[in-house]
Task: inverse folding
């Protein structure tokens, strides 16, 4: 069984994880962020630019599975796994 929890890293929190429909991202400061979601083959499926301290990403079009999220600011990069499940 794969266990994933909400993701808390320096300067941001990503929740819920596992996710059913939408993920939410809270940043500790307002900045320009580039958010990308990739499948396990490395294909970029979703891209969003955010210029605030909060983002919601709609994942309803994605199939169940493991995905990778990367978030880039002007000075940092964060990468984490997301588990998408419809049965939550």
Result:
């Amino acid at each position: 069984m794969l266990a994933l929890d909400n993701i808390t890293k320096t300067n941001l929190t990503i929740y819920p994880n596992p996710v059913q429909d939408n993920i939410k991202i809270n940043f500790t400061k307002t900045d320009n962020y580039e958010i990308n979601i990739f499948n396990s083959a490395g294909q970029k499926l979703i891209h969003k630019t955010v210029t605030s301290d909060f983002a919601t990403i709609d994942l309803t079009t994605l199939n169940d599975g493991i995905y990778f999220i990367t978030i880039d600011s002007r000075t940092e990069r964060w990468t984490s796994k997301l588990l998408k499940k419809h049965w939550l």
